Amino acid sequence: MAVDQSIQRRQSQLTRGKLPSYAVWVVLAAAVILGAALSSLIGFSVAGWAVISAIVFVIGATLVTAVAEGGRKATDRLVTYLVYGAFILALIPLISVLWTVLERGLPGLSYNFFFTSMNGITGAIDNQTVEDGTPVLGGAYHAIIGTLQITFWATLISVPIGLLTAVYLVEYGQGKSLTRAITFFVDVMTGIPSIVAGLFAAALFALLFGPGTRMGFVASVALSVLMIPVVVRATEEMLKIVPNELREASYALGVRKWRTITRVVIPTAISGIASGVTLSIARVIGETAPILVTAGFATSINWSAFSGWMSSLPTYIYYQILTPTSPTSPDPSTQRAWAAALLLIVMVMILNLAARFIAGLFAPKTSR
Amino acid sequence: MSSNLLKTPKDRGRAGDKIFSGVSLGAGILILVILFSVAMFLVVQASPVFTADPETVTGGEGFAAYIFPIVVGTVIAAAIALLIATPVGILVALFISHYAPRRLARIFGYVVDLLAAIPSVIYGAWGYLVLAPQMSTIFTWLAENLGWIPIFAGPASQTGKTILTAGIVLAVMVIPIITSLSREIFLQTPNLHEEAALAMGATRWEMVRMAVLPFARPGIVSATMLGLGRALGETMAVALVLSPGLLSASLISSGNQTIAAEIALNFPEAFGLRLSELIAAGLVLFVITLIVNMIARLIISRSKEFSGAN
Amino acid sequence: MSKRIDVKDLNVYYSKFLAVEDVNINIEARSVTAFIGPSGCGKSTFLRTLNRMHEVIPGARVEGEVLLDGDNLYDSAVDPVTVRGQIGMVFQRPNPFPTMSIRDNVLAGVKLNNKRISKSDADALVEKSLRGANLWNEVKDRLGRPGSGLSGGQQQRLCIARAIAVSPQVILMDEPCSALDPISTLAIEDLINELKADYTVVIVTHNMQQAARVSDRTAFFNIAGTGKPGKLIEYDDTTTIFNKPSMKATEDYVSGRFG
Known about the structure:
heterotrimer; B: mainly alpha; MetI-like fold; 75% helix; C: alpha/beta
């Protein structure tokens, strides 16, 4: 009995030399007070207070730990605070972006926005709207149509080329020098700046059809340059994880290689491929720069990707902000731009979620 | 041996194999052709500018004098972006992979992936309409108190549309990219290595330093380089946020320009020699990003040999 | 519906590396032949040359002849696809196609080759093949379910059903039981005994008891050391190999002194 009691009374060996948990809160309180004092010295602001308090807290907590628990624990604690701090720091602008788009974009999502173009909308009309306080006229219908067409053609070009290239890399070209060359240049392509891809398409069509050729399809070609490497990469990864045993099983049944690829390998990997393609669409749907230099800009609906200038959501946002329809009262233009931004983000998010959904939907059937 | 029953009378079915392998080979070669023609078309269309009378080139002193300031501007903007985005991006990735509670980590992972997919024009719009006005007060303060440092020399921009703001917007864009890529690498760290470190009595940071970072180093480098490539080539954010001007050391007054923004702002109205100038500028940008990518690949292949990661 | 195999002076290479050297063997129709030997002795490699499956690995090639009822598999005009249609194969790990149902797995050889088959013919073929693989009673109520939902032993029998559905002359089995539990193994061994009524069966196995239980003839392969080619040491009736082998190495191996 006596022995037991002595063990209970004694402080645990395992917690000896460790700071009590309330110590952190003490340091935090001190830091907040000190932060308030220091920030009022250089002109008080909430942001300044928060920043200075945070710095004081991190330094203080690290020093206290260093004294009480030693250097190793102090370093550990410092890094922990830095990691959390970086997260909060990164969160502020990103939340600000999302919040701004939501807050300013939501009021603009009206029937007009979705189903009318900017055809006939002039500065005078916007001025009138602001004066009367009536709902904003004009919308992004033409830009939505343009975005869908340009992206559609880009997908139609990129997916077959990307898919077949990946098939070559994984199924036919193992160990060949051509494979190494293609892999290398696909890597290079991944790094092409989007504006350079735009210039390429513009230069190509300028050579073929004369200078200044701008139409939706040129933009699609530009986007394909950006999209193909993404499709190749995603497909390649997915084909590589298809077990070799399935290919062998198919060959052993006397099935030809191309049938094995099209009927066994690709179906097994289809979920990953589809999700990769969806992500690649999400990547290019918001591209602005290449469209700027290839498709030009339009205010009215253009149903043909093969003739005439064409607007898209990203270029629509760009021009509405940079050159408002009415320079004297830019608010209607700004509102349209944010609404378009919100729509674009929603599209990208839907594509991303769809990619995850597809990945789950077509996943190889397992158990039960 | 003509009686061999295994011989197929006609080449039935073999044609399918030939066609399919031929088509996929063709697709692969097409990619090489595309890339080659990207380079060729740019060179052909840009070439007039190299032979033109220097006085006819914008600025009147030839192409080199025209391109130099905007190359420097591009590098400055990208450097600011990386200086901010690399440490923050990596720490956030570490937070998500090793520090945040498990359930939250999954959600944060999704969110970061989504943020990486937000179109750049939206970041540009945010920088133009939200961040720039906020920055102008900070710039004024910097010019008053730290004006003796060349990069903070006044006069501070009243609109906040400076290269520092552009750099910050680029950083905000690049952070999700670096985070998303590094997080994936961090999560692939062999559990055994981590557990071995913890079993030796390492603190969490020591475990990260001993097991996670060495394993992830090539991945971090490639993530950073990809971020750099994105920052160098990014057009819209800069075109919207920066009010361009001549090359200047001050980061807080208007001035400087990047290649991509220069092209985007001027291309729609350009023709003739001006067009060639801009395409040549695009070629320069292409070469710069190519070099960055090559260096990244070199570093990755080097460090792969030493990291002990299999 | 069963053919014999005669192998003459066969060498197997991976690029420049000689993996199996100078094999001569005659495999009777409607019999079970077992290949035994220590790991890495080339018995699986050799088995894969019997239906030209080794060609799937880049750089692999052979010298010599493999005759299926007198027809050389390696004649330059012979399409490997035709060979594999006549000589089926079952692998070490069960590998049903994960995207297909049980029924589609059985019909895979027919459907993947785009051969037309009426529904009633298909139903008959599925039932016949699954009965042939002793699996019919276990799965007849869930033919539409994915094949990967079965147990390991059932999956392996599904793979055997899939192989016999294309009505081959010969069935090659590459350690078909090594990934299975003892009860599933017993089911496969029973099945092998039944299969030999209609097919020539060649089985590679690590397990000497298994070879003794299922095979009529046994071939012992050995390797002199790492980097050296594998060789056929002795080929005889199974009872002879296990009771009074003529070679010292065989005796050492079957009596458990090495390997």
